Amino acid sequence: MTTPTFQSLRYEVADHVARVTIDRAEKRNALSWTVMTELREAFDVARSDAEVRVVVLTGAGDRAFCAGADLTGMAADAGAAAVHDARGELARLFRDMWELGKPIVARVRGYALAGGFGLACACDLIVCSDDARFGTPEIDVGLWPFMITVPLTRSMPPKRALELMMTGRRVDAAEAERIGFVHRVVAADQLDAAVDELTAVLAAKSPVVMKLGRDSFYGAWDQAAEDALRLLHPLLSVTSSTEDAAEGIAAFVEKRPPAWKGR
Questions:
Q1: Do residues 216 and 121 both lie within one domain?
Q2: Pairwise CA distance, residues 126 & 247, whole Å
Q3: Structural domains in the chain (count)
Q4: Contact 98/217 with Cβ under 8 angstroms?
Q5: Looking at CB atoms within 10 Å, which of 96, 115, 128, 244 has the fewest?
């Protein structure tokens, strides 16, 4: 597949991993309208590419993963309806991420604030450097982080998310790991190695089972227990009937690495 080019992103694929980098270091990788739209396009490319099994999302430079919104680029004469619709682009981006069918790992260095905090939490896993800082400073300028409420409350105890949104305080990497929304903290010079280690583990799994399992996780998330079980039950039969399930069992019995076919 031809590697796409973007105005505000870098997109690279190697060893079954697509690396998506917000390339606006001079703006601390802030989320412009263009960035959000191009992120959706990049995830769509990754979804369609059978060679891609894992996506890494990060920001350029060492100052910030993403420092929040930079809502420039909207036409000066845009009407209220157009502006309102554009504000929904972040919600559409979150949905695209959850429906990707492939794991997304956030590689966080420096600041992840406001919409950038939500973007990191919308990923499946977060690996960060020990100098990472997270926060929702909107309250300090008379705003509220409405759109990131869902990824934040899905990533930590809801009342903890509310406390961060009400106070606007910054959370360092150690506290982020303790709260539970960060999955691993490493020294800055070990960040790439830690991300590579995790993505290698994820990319080595059956892509078809990963998709079915990940989709079921997000599908069952907000459902009542009985409804979730009705969703999950048939997926057990579907997964068990895949060629990769048969290969995995055979490889286990024969004490050899499985050779996944992705079907």
A1: no
A2: 31
A3: 2
A4: no
A5: 96
> What per-residue string of b and e applies to 35-72 under the rule 16 or more CB within 10 Å gives b?
bbbbbbebbebbbeeeebbbbbbbbbbeebbbbbbbbe
End-to-end CA distance of the chain: 20
Instruction: Tell me the residue length of the chain.
Output: 263
Q: How is residue 94 written in tokens?
A: 């979150």
pTM, full prediction: 0.93
Q: Could you write out the DSSP letters of every residue in 203-235?
A: HTS-HHHHHHHHHHHHHHTTS-HHHHHHHHHHH
Tokens representing residue 222 in the block: 């907000």
Q: Are residues 154 and 219 in the same domain?
A: no
- For residue 97, the enclosing domain spans 9-203
User: 190 and 128, same structural domain?
Assistant: yes
Number of H helices, E strands in the chain: 11, 10
Question: For 184-198, what is each residue's pLDDT tens digit?
Answer: 999 999 999 999 999
Catalytic (active-site) positions = 138
